[in-house]
UniProtKB/TrEMBL annotation:
PROSITE patterns: ABC_TRANSPORTER_1, ABC_TRANSPORTER_2. Residues 4-228 form the ABC transporter domain. Keywords: ATP-binding, Nucleotide-binding, Transport. This is ABC transporter ATP-binding protein. SMART domains: AAA.
Length: 295
């Protein structure tokens, strides 16, 4: 069963701006699914369409394998932008109002406040909360009614490093409880830390989708250097297990066949009379991979 499936979902603004173009996505139950893309790539527009807030130009989507309905919408909790809380009411009171609007039992509220780590500040008015606390309260609000699916649009925007860690850990915790999560983000590191699946958007186009390890993980890159760079380059180009070789200033960056180790490389070079001044194995930076894929 799919939780959300989009078929050729498209949004054109002002007749020419294709904000989302022919998007096909399938999100399975239990996925922590990241929609990753730079500013303006169509993340919010995509989420807005699937929540019935933005009218698609063409294409369609299903929730729980059925046409969208009010009943399906009840099974989804979402924060697209910071919700309007009452500034002079405390967390409990604010959530009670939300529960009332959602026709949900207010008994769950203390547990939600505990989950998002606001128990110690439950009596403070909303206006006295830090940005991170406000965001955690918003997440508690989305969890009212125990929805199966949670949708978050850039939930760590504007937070300080501590707030970012707290919100990410909260998302991981919610995912571990078996919820399906859809998270829009422009931060590759965030998607890598929180999600198990990812779709990468660029100018409204889907450029890659799959498991995080498949899409964002890369084969290691070995950096080497030696006093005589030309000699090193020439020897490396003759080694059968070197599959890719790039020059980066005084460093040569190479890829090798999977079964070969850095030790094998070092030994092979030493046997040819080359003593390395630099040897470093790095997993391809995700940022680099992302830019490579989005540029
Ligand atoms: N109401 C609108 N009218 C016209 N153009 C719009 C409207 N909303 C969004 N757009 C345009 O559609 C494109 C996609 O915007 P969207 O907000 O979906 O991107 P995003 O990936 O969420 O970006 P960000 O990371 O900045 O939140 C952008 O070029 C944006 O300017
Ligand atoms: Mg957005």
């Amino acid at each position: 069963m799919s939780v959300l499936q989009t078929t050729s979902l498209t949004k054109v603004y002002n007749k020419t701006l294709r904000a989302v173009d022919d998007l096909n996505l399938r999100i399975e139950k239990g996925n922590i699914y990241g929609i990753l893309g730079p500013n303006g790539s169509g993340k919010t527009t995509t989420l807005g369409m699937t929540l019935g807030i933005i009218h698609p130009t063409s294409g369609s989507y299903t929730w729980f394998d059925e046409a969208p309905s009010a009943a399906a919408r009840q099974r989804i909790g979402a924060i697209l932008e910071t919700p309007n809380f009452y500034p002079y009411m405390n967390a409990q009171k604010n959530l009670e109002i939300m529960a009332h609007i959602k026709r949900s039992d207010p008994k769950q509220i203390p547990e939600l406040i505990d989950l998002v780590g606001l128990t110690g500040r439950v009596d403070s008015p909303f206006t006295a909360y830090s940005l991170g606390m406000k965001q955690r309260l918003a997440i508690a609000g989305a969890l009212i009614g125990d929805p199966e699916v949670l949708i978050f649009d850039e939930p760590t925007n504007g937070l300080d490093p501590q707030g970012i860690v707290e919100v990410r850990n909260l998302l991981i915790e919610i995912g571990a409880r078996g919820k399906t999560i859809l998270l829009a983000s422009h931060i590759i590191d965030e998607v890598e830390k929180v999600c198990n699946h990812v779709a990468i958007l660029k100018y409204g186009d889907l450029i890659a989708a799959g498991s995080v390890s498949e899409i964002l993980g890369g084969e290691p890159i070995i950096e080497v250097s030696a006093p005589d760079l030309e000699q090193l380059k020439s020897v490396l180009s003759q080694l059968s297990f070197v599959t890719d070789l790039k020059e980066d200033g005084p460093i040569l960056a190479l890829k090798m066949k999977a079964e070969t180790t850095a030790t094998d490389l070092n030994k092979a070079l030493f046997d040819k009379g080359i003593v390395l001044s630099h040897l470093h194995v790095r997993k391809k930076s995700l940022e680099a991979e992302f830019l490579e894929r989005t540029s």
